[in-house]
Amino acid sequence: LYYGFYTNATIVKNEAMPPYYMQLAYLLTMGIYFILCFLSLLYSMATSFLKNFSSPQMYSGNAAKLLCVWDFNITNANAVKLKQKNLSTQIKETLSEVNAGVLKLPFSQRLSRIAVHVVAWALSLGAAIGSCAGIYHISLVNLQVRREENRPVSLINHLVLPIAVSLINHLVPFLHQIYTSIISVVRLRFSCSPLPLCRNILLKVSLIGILCNYWLNKVALSDAKCWETLVGQDIYRLLVTDFICCLLGSFFGEFLRRIIGTKCCKKLGVPEFDIARNVLDLIYSQTLTWIGIFFSPLLPAIQMISFFILFCVKKVSLMMNCQPPRKAWRASQMNTIFVFLLFFPSFAGVLAVVAIAVWRRKPSETCGPFRGLPTIYEAISGWVAKLSGYPGSAWVVWIYHNLIESVHFFFILSVIMLIIAYLYWQIIDGRKIMVKLLKEQIVNEGKDKMFLLKKLRALQAPKPPNPGKQSERHSSVRHPMHFPLPNSIESSPRVKERDSYAEV
């Protein structure tokens, strides 16, 4: 489970088979894992953005949600209610966006809105700074206890840091909800305000940053015998305590809250299911797993099991204890935002942490596959130096020296990626402009049709009878779709026959 278990020896079963380099296996496994995660996140983010932000469907008329969206094949009563709630949520999302776009408040209300938001942000920043300072102090005390060789470290001392982090991570967002409730009471909040989400993101990013600083600058530079294993154990305890806090939150925050709101104090009602907070908890756990995979290789397997259990518990709690949130979210676009948050700053920050551990920190002298090396990265350079003596491996050496070690290659690759991103951005903007122009053209086409229909009705309107002209009398009682014709055509026998039938 931990880094210190793995050996630095080259495993040779027999002379006929090539040796197995444990150092390379350890590094390449982590590298391939991160590459697959990067490609998966990049594909998910690009697909979601293309579908929810640049698709022409988002410019379609809202009348379809009222007239053409119902599925008449639904016959089950529960399915009908679920479909009604779904349509109601979609209409609320659309109305909230329309109201946010056309709402114009007087100067006094705008000033009061800004003041309340400033106070809420000040309280949130104060809570985040105080939480980070407390965690930093607890981490230093925890490290000092570990350094005392003659003093046995109890289980409580090991669990102080993860319990404190988990409690802060789950209790402070409830304070943010109180701020949001106060703002809602004074009616100073948009229905789709992302500010509570931003405050929770700030808190979680700050906590992870303090923990990474503690692991890489305090634990790694200490005189611990195997600092990598200590980091892996801390992250494992953090994930376990966070999993327990999530289960307790579902029980106390949703089940007991429903019992109190329906039995004791009915004014409270059924609790809402906070989608944003639950998704951010998943992103927080996934970030810790990414950081801990280098120090605890089997951590993703443990996290998969915990995610499966959490999914089942949350699903049951959602159906039995919660109601849909009153605050309307644009679900498709929020999905894109959550994937983007999972990609940056979570994944980008994890890469920075792993890069510092691989390139800058000295591995432990007594444990792990990289013992005795100045840096972990020296394992790859030493292996490439051995390959230089084999003619068949010259291409591997060329790729290493010209691609991996070359700073210019990464600079050129970054420039190419930026150019591709810019081109895609321009293509998306062009599609949006094209869809907007097509929408305006459709509106103009409808106006042209209305204009032509008015002219047609004006031509079809009956004229006052004139006794001096029999032909005009006939024209006033002709078929409704009759158009005026020249005199030469009106005098023809076939036209007269048609007029006689029209009179009949």
UniProtKB/TrEMBL annotation:
Residues 493-504 have a biased composition (Basic and acidic residues). Keywords: Membrane, Transmembrane, Transmembrane helix. It is found in: Membrane. GO terms for molecular function: mechanosensitive monoatomic ion channel activity. Its main location: membrane. Residues 226-332 form the TMC domain. The chain crosses the membrane at residues 20-43, 114-136, 156-176, 197-216, 236-256, 287-311, 337-359, 380-401, 407-425. InterPro entries: TMC, TMC_dom. Residues 460-504 are annotated as: Disordered. It is a multi-pass membrane protein. Pfam families: TMC. It comes from the Eukaryota. GO terms for cellular component: plasma membrane. Belongs to the TMC family. This is Transmembrane channel-like protein. It comes from Anolis carolinensis. The gene is TMC5.
